[in-house]
Structures are given as C-alpha cells and as structure tokens.
Specification:
The protein is built from 7 helices and 12 strands. The chain is α/β, with parallel strands linked by helices.
C-alpha cells in the first residue's frame, strides 16, 4: 500500500452551478499540481445545497448539472486524479433527490456514490434536509491505490454507529463531506448566546456555534476510536463555522485551512507512519459485542454491587 496524498478542498458553494464548477475544476488542477491522488469537495459542492443556497428543487437546472458533472469527470480523466464530489442525485417518480458524494475515478468513471443516510429534520420530513432530500440506505466502500475508503456526509457525524460499521468493513480512510456555512453574522452571535458566552473560552472553536464545537471534536474522536484517517472539507461561504481540515488515524489534526477563504489542503496518508492506537488490542472484540478488556471473573463479591 503506497503513500496517498489527499487534497481537502473548500470554496464558497452556491446556487450557481457554473461558479461551483469553475471552483471545482480550478482546485482539481491545484490538487494535481501539488501531487494529490484524490481531490475531496464539500457537501453539495457542485449542485449547491437545497434549503441554504436555494429554496427548493422546484425548477432546478438538472440538465446544467449533468453537463457540469460530465466536465468534472473529463477533468478527472485528463488530470489522472480521483475526485469525491458533493452533489444532488436526481431520482424518478417524483421522489426527492439524494444528497450524495460521487466517487469519480482517475479514468473519469463513477466508481461509487454515497447517499447521505441521516438527513437532518423532523419526523414529518418538513424541515432541514428531509424537506428536500431522500435519505440513503447503503454504505459505500471502494479502493484507491490499496487504501480502503468510505464516505459520510455532514449530519451523519452525529451517529457514531456509522463509523463502527465502516471500520467493520475494513475502511482505513474516510471522506466526510460537510456544509456548515453561509451563516449570517447575527445568527452566529445568536447561536453563541444560546450556548452561553461564558463557555466560549473552554470550547475552543473557529466559531462559538454548535457545528464549530461539535463537528471537529467528533472527527477527532471518530479517527482515534476507529483508527481511520478523515478528510473534512467544508464550504467556505461566509460565515463558515470552521475551515476544512484533515485528521490522522490517531486523532491528531495535521492541517487546517483558513475560515471563509477558498483553498486546497494536501495531506499525506502514510502506511509506514507508526501511530498511537490505545484501543487496538480490544477494538475488534468490542465491535463483536464483548464490552470489556481482559478476562472477566466469576466472583460473588463482583456480582454484589450493593456493599463495599
């Protein structure tokens, strides 16, 4: 298994498919120039994000999106790099589209597609993602130069069961696409007030918001608990809650871009690098349902939990 360079990309995702395409093509070129094998883009990066960048899919330009997607696939072929690209995936019979990450190979072919499984919103499906998207129901696993890869999207981070399932499937490198951006300055202040300004100093984050606090922290925990590398792109549309970053399999963040500024972060995934993994001895057993380390004992004083 070879060293793999991953480009984690961010730009101000918008409702303008043409503008999104220009950013994607430009950043693919930068990634290739810097030796990246794969370029990874945020949630909804080609189509824009329904409910935030545009109100709904009514009158959406699906033909324009198809043409833009073909242009990205052709650029991947010419550059000889892989692409993990966020975009809407049209369904039939009046069903709402999926919120997806397409995996495009270095030959310009679709190798896999992940559909966001946990779309935000209420049980009536009238708010959040569920007002616009149909949830997915499959895991997506593929290989790049011997590295076993998987994908998740944004709100999926709230469900650690997904990372455990990917780990069971042998995944070593996760492409977790996010969109936590286009917040007004007033909304960021309001969220900070809800959290409590007095807690800002002990919750260090790019912004004192729930995404700014919980998303990066969850990626650190997911990497360390499952011993997987994680690429985490975000839209840079102001105000973004945090900038794109990359986490090593031991939970260490190895690089981070600037918030609200387009950029490409190239990180090296090295199979020869010795990384700390305190759970290695017991992780597989825990995933099988044995939830303790060592050898359990059969002792009445162990069973009686009501006395000292």
């Amino acid at each position: 298994m070879a060293v793999l360079k991953v480009a984690t990309c961010q730009f101000p995702v918008s409702a303008d498919i043409g503008a999104n395409l220009r950013y994607v093509i430009r950043q693919m070129g930068l990634a290739s120039q810097r030796g990246a094998r794969v370029a990874h883009f945020p949630e909804g990066s080609l189509s824009g994000y329904a409910g935030t960048d545009f109100a709904s899919f009514a009158g959406f330009g699906w033909d324009q999106l198809d043409e833009a997607f073909a242009a990205v696939a052709e650029a991947a072929r010419k550059l000889g790099i892989w692409v993990v690209l966020g975009s809407a995936h049209r369904l039939s019979d009046g069903h709402k589209p999926h919120n997806s990450s397409y995996v495009i190979s270095d030959s310009g072919q679709i190798t896999e597609r992940y559909d966001k499984r946990f779309c935000s919103g209420d049980s009536a499906e009238r708010t959040g993602d569920l007002a616009h998207y149909s949830p997915g129901r499959h895991f997506s696993v593929w290989s790049i130069d011997g590295w076993i890869c998987g994908a998740l999207i944004c709100y999926d981070y709230r469900f650690p069961e997904l990372y455990r399932e990917y780990k069971k499937r042998g995944v070593q490198l996760m492409f977790h696409s996010f969109y936590a951006a286009r917040f007004s300055a007033a909304r960021i202040v309001a969220i900070g007030q809800t959290i409590g300004p007095e807690f800002a100093a002990v919750n260090r984050s790019a912004t004192h918001t729930y995404p700014g606090i919980t998303m990066p922290a969850s990626m650190t925990a997911a990497a360390a608990a499952n011993h997987v590398w994680i690429s985490c792109p975000n839209s840079s549309a102001p105000q973004s809650c945090w900038p794109a970053f990359f986490v090593r399999a031991d939970g260490v963040t190895t690089g981070r871009l600037r918030r609200n500024v387009p950029g490409v972060l190239v990180s090296t995934v090295d199979p020869e690098r010795e990384l700390y993994d305190s759970t290695a001895a017991w992780r597989a057993r825990a995933m099988s349902g044995v939830l303790h380390s060592g050898t359990s004992v059969d002792d009445p004083r162990s069973e009686d939990r009501t006395r000292a």
